[in-house]
Amino acid sequence: MNVALTFNVKPESETFPESVAPNRKLHSASEKIISDTYAEWDTWETINAVKAALDEYSNVTLVEADHNAFGVLREIKPDIVFNIAEGFSGISREAQIPALLDMLGIPYSGSDPLTLAICLDKARTKEILSYHNIANPNFITIADKDFVINDQFMFPMIVKPVGEGSSKGIYTSSFVRNEQELRNEAIRILEEYKQPALAEEFLPGREFTVALLGNGNEVEVLPIVEISYKNFPGDFIPIYSYEAKWILDTRENPLDVFSCPADIPAELEERIKAAALSTFKVMRCRDWSRIDIRLDRNNIPNIIEINPLPGILPDPADNSCFPKAARISGMSYNDMINRVLYTAARRYNLL
φ, ψ for residue 306 (rounded to 5)? Predict the structure, then answer.
């Protein structure tokens, strides 16, 4: 097949001036302040690894998901697009390339524009999950500085931007213990990210992430990954924040926080898988997705994030959960990528 690979690539580096980003420090003694602007975009290492995998069975053309993408895709007319593009801006950004492809009548891997746009909007996602009685943390959406919080919410809470991924906007300060801290964090997000803040009750239980691959009745749940915070530095909150994910957890000094397959009783494993599968189907995900789950105080699996464009760092030294689960299930990185492509091509009856 002739395959186009659509992507967004990170700039080589980006830093914040200290004067505009006092909250970006890992610790007060940290020397480097890192921007999270392009956290969702991929590196050339990942893009080239995906291309190399697709090259095994297909003729591959790289298409950067910029303002020229529509013309390029219309000209080359690939049989199918392998899409890992995160988009440029706005709550619809992950849906932009799939919407162009729908307009051009070109098949593509992954979820459609509606699912991608909804899953990026955490509040809309939680409303749909709640309607379908799928457990998720109690929450409030804060759209302006003069909000009022009522007594139904319990502290501590986690505050995050309503429409970001890759832990953007989630820092140590995001863990709030009272209304004043909540107000401070909500205002920070409103001002810095120019979007509403989502405040969720913090769940004290174990955390997992579940990779899924397939469609319809053939969706496969890959081995569950557990994220454990017992080896975190003492001054870090027990969440996989931007600081933990992109600053503390490095290839040279990886955090020992992931275990796969998760060491859990069979009954809990089935409940986690059932929650992930229900979410995948209710949100109309296609081909693949990674769903983050945390247990509440009653050990009930709660959905905390849906990733229809999951991270796929190729190096096993990196803590990238979808490839980690795929490896444990017996797939190489190249197998995983081509399995996603095959799944999408089969959905379009191309095979």
Answer: -120, 130
